[in-house]
Design a protein that fits this description.
Radius of gyration: 22 Å
Shape: globular
Helix content: 25-40%
Number of strands: 18
Strand order of the largest sheet: 16-15-14-17-18
Largest sheet: 5 strands, antiparallel
């Protein structure tokens, strides 16, 4: 197969704006794309992979009933928040859970075993890169400034930290995700300000992640794809948006920004540290112009950044996935 005919696998939910934009960019370049959601495996998607005693890799096919990709021909994989494998309702528990785990492992691990195939991002690396406490350590090693932070279930330790900071504090989740509050509703646990005077034994109920509240001139969603870095700004026009912009989209003004060379270099070192090529980095820029790293989401959203600013982030994804063979 010629290099031009080798397909990119896009593994994402059916309704995903970022995946749509990358697929469209690849289509415009005449790069073959096979898109599917891992949730369609094994009921609608067929995987057959073989490995012999002397072969250098797995061979076989992925077939969704409309298109077929040979595993040995895969050019690159864009793994973008796919769903979990869906097992037929006719399989009872505990076998259904076992079958789902088997299917998940087969799809991910066979694709991850394809030799020399670039990923955005390999989920094995993604998983480690998403750990927020480790991110602060990696960020400081890579040369980024971070907020003073404490994770504790000890109210006395929290009070001591508050005295050391001697300023406003926020509390944020250690693990992302939403809290189910009904059959059809989920609550996002947002970053929020806390008053140390209210610290009591309720802190012992779980781990709490406290940080000094960084004064913000504005915030930046810094999107990195390989060596390319893009800065989208968020200027909050409400106190709610200033605390956590995800809670008040109506009071945000968007724009673009240049970024210091040392910040861009540190972001690239951060990606290399985790062996990933994509990240959505959240920064505050203080009134004095200092850049402070909050966290990186290795599967973070970015379609809204491109849609509101015109930054060519989808093209950067396509550049990486297409490779240098064209």
């Amino acid at each position: 197969m010629t290099a031009a005919a080798r397909p990119v696998l896009v593994v994402a939910e059916q309704l995903d704006a970022a995946a749509d934009m990358v697929v469209d960019e690849l289509n415009q370049r005449d790069v073959p794309v096979i898109r599917f959601d891992a949730a369609t495996f094994p009921q609608q998607l067929t995987l057959t992979a073989g490995h012999g005693p002397v072969e250098l890799g797995w061979t076989g096919i992925l077939d969704d009933g409309r298109r077929t990709a040979r595993l040995e021909d895969v050019r690159a994989v864009y793994w973008r928040r796919p769903g979990r494998s869906a097992i037929a309702d006719t399989v009872p528990e505990p076998y259904a859970t076992w079958a789902q785990n088997q299917a998940d492992a087969a799809m991910l691990n066979v694709l991850a075993a394809l030799p020399g195939v670039p990923w955005i991002n390999n989920p094995h690396h993604d998983r480690l890169a998403a750990h927020k406490p480790q991110q602060l350590t990696a960020a400081t090693r890579c040369g980024l400034r971070v907020p003073r932070s404490i994770i504790t279930n000890d109210p006395n330790a929290a009070r001591t930290f508050a005295k050391q900071v001697n300023g406003p504090l926020i509390c944020k989740p250690i693990l992302g995700g939403r809290l189910p509050v009904g059959e059809d509703r989920a609550l996002m646990v947002a970053t929020h300000h806390v008053d140390p005077a209210t610290f009591d034994d309720s802190i012992r109920t779980t781990a709490h992640y406290f940080q000094e509240a960084i004064p913000k001139a504005y915030e930046v969603r810094l999107v990195a794809v390989g060596d390319q870095v893009f800065g989208g700004t968020l200027h909050a026009t409400s106190e709610k948006a200033a605390t956590d912009w995800r809670t008040d989209y109506e009071h945000i003004e968007y724009g673009t920004t240049a970024f210091p060379d040392d910040v861009a270099s540190a972001v690239r070192r951060f990606l290399a540290y985790y062996e990933i090529v994509f990240g959505s980095f959240d920064f505050a820029v203080t009134p004095e112009g200092k850049w402070v790293f909050f966290e990186n989401n290795p599967a973070g959203t970015w379609a809204w950044v491109e849609n509101r600013t015109g930054l060519p982030i989808a093209a950067a994804h396509a550049d990486y996935l297409q490779g240098d063979s064209e």
